[in-house]
Each structure stands twice: as structure tokens, then as C-alpha cells.
Automatic annotation (TrEMBL):
Residues 341-362 are annotated as: Disordered. InterPro entries: ClpP/crotonase-like_dom_sf, Tail-specific_protease. The lineage of its organism: Bacteria, Pseudomonadati, Pseudomonadota, Alphaproteobacteria, Sphingomonadales. One of its GO terms (molecular function) is serine-type peptidase activity. The keyword Nuclease does not apply. GO terms for biological process: proteolysis. Pfam families: Peptidase_S41 (PF03572). Keywords: Signal. Residues 1-21 form the signal peptide. SUPFAM superfamilies: ClpP/crotonase (SSF52096). This is Tail specific protease domain-containing protein. Residues 105-321 form the Tail specific protease domain.
Length: 362
């Protein structure tokens, strides 16, 4: 299963590919800041999708170790220092050091406020006559969520339009996409291309190897390319349904994969704001002491242009503030403005719809 976004690595909501022990991983009681930093540097040098950039990341971290920059740091302070050094080399929407959870407060102290985990699927159903609506907050490796997505498509197979809300979708994998796409296409359709660093793929470390919807393809030197394909099912009822996809600056990683697939093929209309610009896929690694990292090992791109969305995001077809995206999609489908506004308010996401700035970014 592909894993695409570090924020969900931290929330344990994202699906991982195989996890490999990093160099010099240490137990929580004897890990040092420099050991964490060196483990991270070694993984970036070995596996980062662009070898030259991975080497530069590692050199920057090792120079900071030699200068004593990380001495005495831990937790968020260490994460911010390392993230800052990495971002100074080359920003990457997926690079963020995971730090141990904060120490519980002393008796009588205020407990940290944490939001509950995101529900993967919200407000699925009919939003207006003939119009189905569903919000995905994540595409997890979870059979129950995949079954829920499949059931949504079956239950709304007579829709004249479907609105997919991914404004608060932060990443995941392909499982739910692969039960949605067969309903929407009338012929086999190439969606996107995904290329993994060849050395990682040769070790069996590609998080997309072995997925049925992925097909081998010719790729760039040093990379192993696979194409994501949609294969139609036997039910033709949704082949001509109008598809709208709501996006925001919080739509990241696997959400952007979904958005690009709809845009590149012309199958869906994107409404909202540019997505987060977190393109690179990869896998989570343990650095010891409760620290972890997400190591990007590949990229996803438009198979026609060769362009990915790192840093820029996938651009909407209809640009409006994310909070107005559902209202606009409904009016495009013929719903009266006042009713569209009422329905939009009733289906407003409770999670942020803004791009999250990376910790340590310049």
C-alpha cells in the first residue's frame, strides 16, 4: 500500500509500505539528538528519490551535527532544527521529522488539547435530487473504509452527478480510489504515472509494487515507472455522470493524486483552490527514541506532460475560496443559489482548509 503524507504518518492514519530499520536506530532511553539526526541523514542519502538532493540533505544534517547544532535539543525543538536545515537545502512537502508525543503534564496541570482522529468518510449520501455527495478526509489501508467507499458508489449508481469533497483530505493510498474509478470510466484509462527510485525498487522497497491497478511503464533513468490505470466495471450507469471534486490548500498527497487523475483525464471538474503541493510518495521509518521520518522515494506525475505538482499543487478548473467550493459546484449543477448556500453551510468541513506550513520552513 502506498503511503503519501507525513502528517498522517504522525497521526498513524496513513497506510505504510514496508518499513525498513534505519541505520543506528536506538531505544528511547539511550537515543541522542545526534543519533536521530545521523539516522535520518543516512536514510535520506540512501533512499531519497533524487540521489543528488538526498546527498545534499545528508551533508547539511551532518554539518549541523559536527557544529553541535543539535546538542541538548529534543522533541519539537530538535524536529524544528533538523526540518529547518533540510528545508534550507530544498523544500519538500513530505519532509517533516516526527517527534515523540509530549510528556504528560504534572498532576493538576492542564492536559494538552488534541483533536480526535479524522473520520475517513463523512456526510456520504444524497445532497440534492440526483446529486450525491461524499467527503473523504483520508484514503487509509482499511478494508472497512474501502467497503464503505464501494457501497457509496453502488448506492448512488443512479446519480446524475457526484461531488467528491477532498478539501480536508491529507493523504493515504490507492485502495478507495480503486473502487471508485471503475464506475467512472467507459474504457481502460491511464490516470497518472508513479516513478520510484530504482535502487529502492530493486530492494523490494517500492510502496506501489504489486498493486493490481499499477502497470509497469518506461521511465526516466534511475527510476522504475508504473502507471495507475482505471479499468471499467460492468455497470454503466455512472459513465456519463457529472463529477465535481472540491479542493483546498489542505488537499494533499493522495488527495492530489485523485485530483490530478480527474483533471488529467477530463473526467472531473476541480472546484476550489490549488492543492497543497505535497507530491512525493514514500514510506515511514523509525529513527529510535520515538522519532520517525517519512522518506520520499518516488513521485507522481501527469503521464502526458511529465509534470508533477510538488510545491505548486494541482490547479482547480474553477477557482473559488474553498469555503465556497460546494456552493459553486451545486449552482453549476442547477441548484438554486439560496439552496446551494444552505446545503454548503450544512456540509462545511470541521477541519482546516488551509495549506499547512512545514515546521522549520524558511
Amino acid at each position: 500500500m502506498i503511503r503519501l503524507l507525513p502528517a498522517l504518518l504522525m497521526a498513524a492514519a496513513m497506510v505504510a509500505g514496508p518499513t525498513f530499520a534505519p541505520p543506528s536506530a536506538m531505544a528511547a532511553d539511550d537515543v541522542s539528538a545526534d543519533a536521530v539526526a545521523e539516522a535520518y541523514a543516512a536514510l535520506l542519502e540512501r533512499d531519497y528519490l533524487y540521489p543528488e538532493t538526498g546527498k545534499k540533505y545528508a551533508d547539511a544534517i551532518r554539518a549541523a551535527i559536527a557544529a553541535g547544532r543539535y546538542k541538548g535539543l529534543s522533541g519539537e525543538a530538535l524536529g524544528a532544527a533538523i526540518d529547518s536545515d533540510v528545508n534550507a537545502v530544498a523544500p519538500d512537502g513530505h519532509l517533516r521529522l516526527r517527534v515523540p508525543e509530549a510528556t504528560p503534564p504534572a498532576p493538576g496541570g492542564a492536559a494538552p488539547v488534541r483533536r480526535p482522529p479524522k473520520v475517513p468518510v463523512e456526510q456520504a449520501g444524497w445532497i440534492a435530487p440526483g446529486i450525491a455527495f461524499v467527503r473523504f478526509n483520508v484514503f487509509p489501508m482499511d478494508d472497512a473504509v474501502t467497503a464503505e467507499a464501494a457501497k457509496f458508489m453502488v448506492d448512488h449508481a443512479d446519480a446524475k452527478a457526484i461531488i467528491f469533497d477532498i478539501r480536508t483530505h491529507n493523504g493515504g493510498g490507492l485502495d478507495q480510489m480503486d473502487v471508485i474509478f471503475p464506475w467512472l470510466f467507459g474504457k481502460e484509462t491511464r490516470l497518472v504515472t508513479m516513478a520510484t527510485r530504482a535502487s529502492v525498487d530493486a530492494e523490494g522497497g517500492s510502496p506501489i509494487a504489486g498493486i493490481a491497478s499499477m502497470r509497469m511503464a518506461k521511465g526516466d533513468a534511475g527510476m522504475v515507472a508504473r502507471e495507475h490505470w482505471a479499468t471499467p466495471n460492468a455497470d454503466k450507469r455512472l459513465r456519463d455522470a457529472k463529477i465535481y471534486v472540491l479542493t483546498s490548500g489542505a488537499s494533499a498527497s493522495a488527495a492530489e493524486h485523485f485530483a490530478l487523475a480527474m483533471k488529467h483525464t477530463g473526467r472531473g471538474v476541480l472546484v476550489g483552490a490549488p492543492t497543497a503541493g505535497a507530491n512525493h510518495f514514500g514510506r515511514g521509518e523509525d529513527l529510535g527514541g520515538g522519532y520517525g521520518a517519512f522518506i520520499p522515494v518516488g513521485r507522481t506525475y501527469d503521464p502526458v506532460t511529465g509534470k508533477d505538482w510538488e510545491g505548486e499543487g494541482v490547479l482547480p478548473d474553477i477557482a473559488v475560496p474553498p469555503a465556497e467550493a460546494l456552493e459553486r459546484a451545486l449552482t453549476e449543477l442547477g441548484v438554486a443559489p439560496a439552496e446551494a448556500k444552505r446545503l454548503s453551510d450544512a456540509h462545511m468541513p470541521s477541519w482546516p482548509m488551509e495549506r499547512r506550513k512545514a515546521r522549520g520552513a524558511k
